[in-house]
Design a protein that fits this description.
heterodimer, A: alpha/beta, Beta Polymerase, domain 2, Rossmann fold, 6-stranded parallel sheet, 4-stranded antiparallel sheet, elongated, B: mainly alpha, 2 domains, about 75% helix
């Protein structure tokens, strides 16, 4: 009868325990998830409740098993599509550890790239599938709901999702700090250096609207432009195109600055002093450092970008520590709230049982005494309700007190007459 | 009894300010509700101001002015202090607290000259519009400071904690829009003041120094908008205009009223 969190079991494999060859073979599609849940809960009755997360990096089952041995046997006999055993790769968590693990997974703290945002959507899908197959119950229903809210809390109150790795993303971070969004922005890539292309690619995947590509040899810029869905522009007309770009990335092998202070000053004037973000990834530098002095120009070189990457790493580690502490707290709070839910369920069970008896008796009286007037019936109804309430009061107080003090034996005795099986 | 609602509002702003300045004291969970608490404070404050104002229409003294300014800042807080703009809340929350706190302790001085003029609906309209304008300029001022600070950090390449700040573009948009809002209400407020003077004073009408000064501020903000809309200089230019303009506004609100006599002076 006691539905405490200790019965929760998490079994799974992930990038931490299993190589990709194993993971790719045991990944479940939606139908397979539904079938497995049905099999566990309905057909083989191994678990009372279950839900299953399957992504390319993990497969995890969360269940309230009828017996742990049954579940172990299930996984022991489980064979992947090519007949291999999976139990050597499995980790098992129980009770608080299982709750904590699920919160970590949903908050992207257990991900291959910590802080990546897709996992929350995948967990949501898993919850939806389990809801559709009706395999969530007294424990897993509140747990899944809480998991989603914990994941959102972690995302909004720590900076876990904010810093990404790589020089390209450092460029995106800086662009975001200046523009807020890349929608409607145009960037110009000058030169075809590898780092410049990385930044351009990252900007495009972060929502940049248009990319212009200029290179000393026009053929190469045409090639590069078609590769990234950009527009090639002739190198000789660089200055004409400059005012159209909100972002300029330089990565050429030129030995002298190709963008000078007067050029940028003119470009700023032509674009009515709208902000210009410049990234110079070339060594020696392609943009005159004096450009940084211009009011609306924000110039960063390759060292600046690598410092952004470093800062991001440090911030991410700190955010991960904060997020872990938060997850620990939330796991404790969830387990505590489960005990409260139990009391409410007990009290409802008592009420329901009495109400069924009462309603049946009223119905009997109504049939026996056919002369009962509506007013009399109403009075009868109110009177019996009050009686039931008063009779139950002390019993309910005792249940509350027992639950509060954690006296499970007493709780069991108190609840015995009200349990489903008795009736 | 009359003070109780203000004390509640003060406590609320104290909580909000603490949430921004010492986040660890408040804790994650409570911090999620800072904006709701601020919204409640603004609602209580506004109702109190209207009720008290209706009971004593000529008590438009210095504490009331500060209290109204605090309400304006509070409204600005509720409109902008969401997740991405936490840095603004960090300035606006304490500002609302300090303004209202000062209003509670400064001596009560009213404009004695007003009590001889009789009832005119133009007076509360004039005051309401002026404080709406002030609220707009206050927001523009605070955002302008954050803008300059964020810009300086980027220019000096200090990247630590960067993601916590709103983007320059967003800050610039807010400082411009709130300045435009302030300018529209200041214009209407000046008009309502003229209408009040025409209706209540008739022949005794004269332009006092505060009116001249306010017209100067109006022209200053007008110039700021010109520079932005016509010459295209935004960002730092708008921020600097805004900071100087709001300084003038504060001087007019606090300084001038004590220095001067007449329709805007406190017991001069």
């Amino acid at each position: 009868m006691v539905a405490d969190g200790d019965r929760l079991l998490a079994v799974g494999l992930s990038h931490h325990t299993a190589p990709v060859e194993v993971r790719e073979r045991v990944a479940f599609d939606e139908d397979a998830v539904r079938q497995t849940l049905n099999r566990l809960v309905r057909h083989e009755q191994i678990a009372e409740e279950a839900f299953l997360i399957s992504t390319c990096n993990r497969v995890e089952l969360y269940a309230v098993p009828r017996s742990v041995e049954g579940l172990q046997a299930f996984f022991g006999s489980y064979r992947g599509p090519t007949g291999e055993r999976i139990d050597p790769y499995l980790y098992w968590y129980r009770g608080r550890d299982a709750v904590r693990h699920l919160f970590k997974v949903a908050s992207s703290l257990d991900s291959l790239v910590v802080g990546e945002p897709q996992i929350l959507g995948q967990v949501k899908d898993a919850v939806r599938l389990a809801e559709e197959t009706s395999t969530l119950g007294r424990l897993l229903h509140p747990l899944t709901q809480r998991t989603l809210s914990v994941a959102k809390l972690v995302r909004s109150s720590t900076e876990i999702g904010q810093n990404r790795v790589g020089i390209g993303n450092a460029g995106v971070d800086l662009a975001m700090q200046i523009f807020g969004s890349l929608d409607g922005r145009r960037a110009m890539l000058v030169g075809v250096g590898e780092m410049g292309r990385q930044v351009a690619r990252a900007l495009l995947s972060a929502g940049l609207s248009e990319l212009l590509v200029a290179n000393r040899t026009f053929e190469r810029s045409v090639e590069l432009a078609s590769e990234h869905g950009g527009t090639p522009v002739p190198y000789e007309r660089l200055a004409d195109y400059l005012p159209r770009a909100d972002i300029v990335i330089t990565a050429t092998g030129a030995q002298h600055p190709i963008l000078t202070v007067p050029m940028i000053r003119q470009a700023l004037r032509d674009r009515r002093y709208r902000t210009l973000f410049l990234v110079d990834l070339a060594v020696p530098r392609n943009i005159d450092p004096g450009v940084a002095e211009l009011d609306e120009a924000y110039l960063f070189n390759v060292d600046d970008l690598s410092r952004v990457v470093e800062e991001g790493k440090a911030a991410r580690e700190q955010a991960a520590r904060q997020a872990l502490a938060l997850v620990d707290d939330e796991a404790d709070r969830f387990l505590a709230s489960l005990r409260e839910i139990d009391v409410a369920t007990y009290l409802r069970a008592m009420n329901d049982a009495c109400e069924t008896i009462r309603a049946a008796e009223i119905e009997r009286s109504r049939k026996l005494v056919s002369t009962l007037q509506p007013a009399q019936l109403e009075q009868l109804d109110a009177m019996t309700k009050a009686m039931v309430k008063k009779l139950l009061h002390k019993q309910m107080m005792a249940v509350r007190a027992a639950a509060k003090s954690g006296d499970e034996e007493k709780l069991r005795i108190l609840m015995e007459p009200w349990s489903e099986e008795e009736r | 009894m009359e003070r109780l609602p203000y004390i509640l509002v003060l406590v609320a702003w104290g909580f909000v300010s603490l949430g921004h300045l010492l986040p660890d004291v408040i804790g994650e969970r409570l911090r999620a509700h800072l904006r709701s608490v601020a919204g409640l404070a603004v609602a209580v404050h506004a109702i109190t101001l209207v009720v008290v104002g209706a009971m004593a229409p000529y008590e438009t003294g210095f504490p009331e002015a500060l209290s109204a300014a605090s309400l304006g800042v509070g409204i600005a807080y509720v409109s902008v202090a969401n997740q991405r703009l936490r840095a603004l809340g960090m300035l606006l929350g304490p500002l609302a607290l300090v303004l209202l706190g000062t209003a509670q302790v400064v001596p009560h001085r009213t404009v004695t000259a007003l009590q001889e003029t009789g009832v005119s609906p133009w007076l509360p309209i004039h005051l309401g519009l002026m404080f709406a304008g002030l609220a707009g300029f206050a927001l523009s001022f605070v955002v302008g400071i954050v803008y300059l600070w964020a810009r300086k950090r980027l220019k000096q390449k200090k990247f630590q904690g960067m993601a916590r700040l709103p983007s320059l573009e967003l800050l610039d948009r807010i400082q411009f829009r709130s300045m435009l809002f302030g300018f529209v209400f200041l214009t209407l407020g000046i008009g309502a003041g003229g209408a009040w003077a025409a209706a209540s004073l008739r022949d005794a009408w004269e332009i006092d120094p505060k009116v001249w000064f306010t017209l100067l501020i109006w022209a200053w903000y007008g110039a700021a908008l010109q520079v932005r809309l016509v010459a295209g200089r935004r960002g730092r230019w708008t921020a600097l205009f805004s900071i100087v303009g709001f300084g003038g506004m504060l001087f007019s609100l606090v300084g001038l009223n004590f220095l001067l006599g007449g329709w805007h002076g406190y017991g001069g």
